[in-house]
Specification:
Blueprint lengths: L8 E6 L18 E3 L7 E4 L2 E4 L13 E5 L3 E9 L9 H9 L5 H5 L7 E6 L2 E18 L5 E12 L18 E4 L6 H9 L5 H7 L13 E4 L2 H4 L6
Antiparallel strand pairs: 1-2, 1-7, 3-6, 4-5, 6-9, 7-8, 8-9, 10-11
């Protein structure tokens, strides 16, 4: 009997959005990613409910709390990086990518709207959270004789960014009836769904529209048909 394939966790960097504006064409997965060589043994997902209570002067009873909204989700995880399997191996590139998540992108600085990339934390075909990195901590644990790091543990904290509806047709005010997206290196169906609909969890609609059986093996240069929003809405429960 064949063993089930072990799916890998990853962090995908994406072009940041501004308000309700989706990433520009060609964005999504083109900013690099960190593929976890070893899946995390655990991660913490936290979400808060915000309540407010105003005690009345002289009252002997506790005030009735008022719900004021749901706070953003937060994920904390550790990434174990190991470059010892390759004689010329190093983890410098992965660490540079992780540290870039807290630095503004050059194109956003040029537009006078400095912003680090958005980051999607996923595992296989599952999107856990899409947001921004609040902090990165690197603990180096092994080095080459020349000081090049070979092993490290990175602790990453992400905070959710609320998702907004996708791009609008400038003439009708609604989503375009037909769209296509040309895959580039590093694209995933989840990152394409985020760019087009503002909801990475809607990747299944794109997979079904393009007869994709394995969402983890995409060919750069392929044109994907992007279903219209009315066909995607039933997938919102994803």
């Amino acid at each position: 009997m064949d063993r089930p394939r072990i799916e890998k966790a990853y962090l995908q960097l994406m072009t940041p959005t501004v308000g309700s504006t989706p990433p520009p064409t060609g964005g999504g997965g083109g900013l690099g990613s960190v593929q976890f060589p070893f899946n995390p043994k655990e991660f913490t997902l936290k979400k808060d409910a915000n309540w407010k209570s105003e005690p009345a002067k002289g009252s002997t009873e506790a005030p009735t709390p008022e719900f004021t909204g749901t706070g953003p989700g937060k994920v904390t995880l550790e990434v174990f990086l190991d470059g010892t399997g390759d004689p010329g191996g190093t983890i410098t590139a992965e660490i540079d990518t992780l540290l870039s998540t807290v630095k503004p992108l050059a194109q956003t600085v040029d537009q006078n709207k400095p912003s680090p990339p958005m980051v999607m934390f996923g595992w296989g075909s599952q999107v856990i959270l899409t947001g921004f990195v609040k902090n990165v901590s690197i603990k180096y644990t092994m080095f080459k004789p020349d000081g090049t790091p070979l092993r490290a543990v990175a602790k990453v904290t992400l905070e959710e960014i609320p998702q907004t509806p996708g791009r609008q047709n400038p003439t009708s005010g609604g989503l375009a009836a037909r769209r296509t997206h040309r895959l580039i290196e590093g694209d995933s169906l989840a990152s394409v769904a985020h760019r087009e609909y503002g909801r990475p969890g809607l990747w299944r609609a794109i997979a079904e529209a393009n007869d994709i059986d394995d969402p983890l093996h995409l060919t750069p240069g392929r044109n994907l048909l992007i279903p219209p929003v009315e066909d995607v809405l039933p997938h919102r429960s994803v």
